[in-house]
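Render this sequence as a predicted structure.
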Amino acid sequence: MENTFPVYKVDDIVQFFRTDVLTGQEAKHFAKSDIIPNPKVDVIQRLYMRVLHLLYRFNPIDSHYLAPLSENIQFPMLHERATPVLSVYLCMCQFLPICHVYDFSLNDLLNPKAKRTITILSGIQNFLHFRKQRLEIIAAHQQSFRADMDKLQAYTRGIKEAEKKIEKLMIIPPEQQAEAKELATALTEVKNATMQESQEVNALNEQVAECKTEIAEKSQKLSQKKLEVATQKDEMTKLRSQIVESPEELKIEMEKMKENIKNIKSSKELAVEKLVEMQSKVQCASQGEAEIQLILKQLHDLQASMCKTNQQKEEVQRLAALSESLQKELKGLSTEEAQLKRALAMKQDKESKQHIRRQKKKELKDQHVQNILGQYDKVHEKREEVVERIKNLSRETTQFNDKMLKLRYNCSHNTEKAQAIYDRLLTTLEQFHKQLEHLVMEGSADVIKKKANF
């Protein structure tokens, strides 16, 4: 089966585990010689413990050195050395399939080989690199989510402030409502008055124009008549120089001239009267123009106020458009927020599930630890009982040894006595045998003598 991860060099593995896994003196003392050519068992086991501590955040002493022993096991102190190794082996069997290492065995802890440990450490290093990248991506997502949330809060604040401003601009305060009503009524009255005055002014302007045309026509006629008078005076002077006619004709002509002069004077007086009337009318028109200018000033002021109101309306419209754009952005952000909330809810669900699993595991571990502690207490009690028994047995053995010594002393003393008795018996038996031999010899001699006598 081929590896799905790269096998790193030993120097890279040592550098990585020094910087990212080990700390303090362990990082300083961890070297290449701990892996090749023959891996050190205690260093490799400690390295696996530190990896498990980095990933699962549990204390190696509490987790690995508590032996899950049953009550029926005698002498549990004999298993204390094997329990951390078995605990690390079980944890690594659960962890290493995540790193795509599926054939971890107990021999990799008790008698590790260089090539095998390099592949296992390469798998762990690859997984830790992947974990680090994922953590950085999650941190970036969290930071962007926080920035988006800050923007959303700022946008919502701006929208609320704009809505408040729009309300302030749209709503006339109660103190100024009476003034506003008065100004509105005054505006309507001024508009009506200006309409009427403008109509009157237009009529006066038309009359003035007609009068000006009449004055111009009459002034032209006067100029013509003046020219005629001047021509007639010239003619009269010529005629006076050339008079040869009768005085009757002169009188008739003089009367005609007088009549003409009277007619001209009467027409002149009429023109002067019309001029006076026209001047009075022009003065009235100038006064009307002054009043119209005052009204125009008032109209300009009203127009300026209307411009201000229009500007305020434009600002209101601009703010409304801005609020609409902000609402669109808010909708977009709300959709993003909903997506992020969903993602966050999924993450929270996952985290809650993981938290529940961890709590369950922790509760199981706590129950297991409590059971182990209860078993340990029972074992400790049994151990104390065994210790008391051993003490009693040691006392009995000391007493028995004392008795044995006494018995040995008595036995040695009795053996010495028995030996003395035995020696005495042997000596007496030898003497008795000698006496028996002597008696036998004597009896045999007597028998021989008796045979000889027979």
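Summary. Confidence is low (pLDDT under 50) at residues 61-71. The first helix runs from residue 10 to 20.
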